[in-house]
Amino acid sequence: MSSASAKIKLVLAAGVLATFSVSNLVFCLRYLLNAQNAYVEKTSFDMISLDKGIIGGNATINDTHNYTQLVSLSRNDYMESRHSMFHSWFEGGRTDMLLDNADKNGPILDFIIAGFPKCGTTTVSVNLGYLAPMATGDICTPPSQTVYYAYNNWPKRFGEQKLLRGSKCPQYMNTDGLNHYSKKLPRTKIIIGIRHPVLWYQSFLNQLAGNNLLRYANYDTKPQQCKAGACLNGCPGKYWLCLSRARFHVALAEIGKTALSEEERKILAPNDIDGGGNLTSKNIRNPIFLYEQTELKKDYVWDEMAKYLNVAAIPHDKYISSHGLGKKKPMDLCGEKLDDFRAMLMPYAYDLSVWMQDYFIPVAKNESSDVTIPDPDTFIALVEEYKKDPCGRLYRLKNGTYILDSNRTTIIKVGRK
User: Fold this and answer.
1) 268 in Cβ contact with 276 (< 8 Å)
2) Which residue, among 180, 182, 235, 177, has the nearest Cα to 208 in the 3D structure?
3) In angstroms, rounded to a whole number, what is the distance separating the alpha carbons of residues 30 and 189?
4) Could you give the CA distance from residue 257 to residue 48 in angstroms, rounded to a whole number?
């Protein structure tokens, strides 16, 4: 076998074997590894499942269905195999600069939770923490440093027995962070969450208020556009929160998974300095998993995420809502005084919905695509709601602007999430 990586497929006809000791399978895989000097990234088991997974001692085959999981001969063998290669991933044996395509022989970081902030990233992080030793906070360091933490620091703090390696940095979707992963670790799988931009803005605003950081929110002026060298996290100047950062469709389109046709660019903030015809694809090579924040309480999302990460299951009994440390009264974006502000924000929400339905979701439906969306048809219905003002006070004219619906007098309060 000439390649440094390989795939092994084991096919068992249903009913041929009643039980099969994993220890025997481990022996066979060890033999293949030693004989071929190859790193086996995945093993596909057709027509079988394991009651404890490949990493669980003497599990037996007791069912029939398709199953794919990260190979691990045994949990310790798998971890030791990656640890033993640690220094080979870096230039000159140092640990401050990863080689380009450092994970060509197998994944080094299994996943990165890359955004968007206030879209359930902490919930995803704490539940993936069952499988990966990782900090639940934002770790926005270069890939080389994150890899160092994941293999040398975090296992000692969060569990050396855990199989996966991953981290979280919701800033990556509004910075050049994913460019570095595409160059250094293209096999790292990216996880991204979105939500209705109005609800996202309100949640972010309340978190800043709770931490006495409202000075970093630009919420009462017209959208300001980012210019080269003058932005922080997608916002101009010193701001962390702004209307421009609510353009999830622009940031997602920059990843480069859609064709970016002339017609598509017409709904990618065409009047903004960095949108429309000026939008540049980053051609990110990493696979993408996209969820909608309201889906995180549904089992099917975690089941699909488990398949995406090639694990048997992801425990998901934790749901985290971050509000900041203060005790200030939550700010309500549905107030009458903020109708004009929402009228500026809603066109972005509408275009996000259209772009998702017409361009991004169809990519995920293509079986050969590296984009995964759990239950795309449900996702279509979820983002359809983005076209509506969640406060129920504004409606959209044919020219795309949102105005006050004079027939409605009730203000719908949006709960703090």
Assistant:
1) yes
2) 235
3) 27
4) 33
Cα–Cα dist 417/404, whole Å: 25
Q: What predicted TM-score, i.e. pTM, was given to this entire model?
A: 0.80
Q: Are 361 and 376 in contact (CB under 8 A)?
A: yes
Q: Are 195 and 140 in contact (CB under 8 A)?
A: no
Q: Which two tokens stand for residue 181?
A: 């992963």
What pLDDT was estimated at residue 38? 35
Q: Give the integer Cα–Cα distance in Å for 15 and 228.
A: 63
Higher pLDDT, 111 or 47: 111
Q: Do 22 and 59 touch, CB atoms closer than 8 A?
A: yes
Residue 236 C-beta-side C-alpha neighbours within 13 Å? 14
Q: What pLDDT does residue 201 have?
A: 94
Q: Nearest to residue 22, comparing CAs of 48, 62, 55, 66?
A: 55
Contacts of 94 (CB under 8 A, 6+ apart): none
Confirm if 133 and 159 have CB atoms less than 8 A apart.
yes
For the chain, domains (ranges, CATH) are 5-84 (no CATH), 111-387 (3.40.50)
Q: What stretches of 285-364 adopt beta strand conformation (E)?
A: 288-292
Does the pLDDT value for residue 350 go beyond 90?
A: yes
3-state secondary structure of 235: strand
Beta carbons of 105 and 185 less than 8 angstroms apart: no
> 126: buried, middle or exposed (CB in 10 Å: 19+, 13-18, 0-12)?
middle
Residue 354, H or E segment: helix 339-355
CA distance 150 to 109: 8
Question: For the chain, first and last CA: distance in Å?
Answer: 53
For every residue of 165-212, DSSP letters joined together read -EEE-GGGGGSSHHHHHHHH-TTSEEEEEE--HHHHHHHHHHHHHHTT
> What pLDDT does 325 receive?
54
Average pLDDT, the chain: 80
Which pLDDT belongs to residue 237? 76
Q: Residue 288 and residue 382: Cα distance in Å, rounded?
A: 19
Which pLDDT band holds residue 187 (cuts at 50, 70, 90)?
A: very high
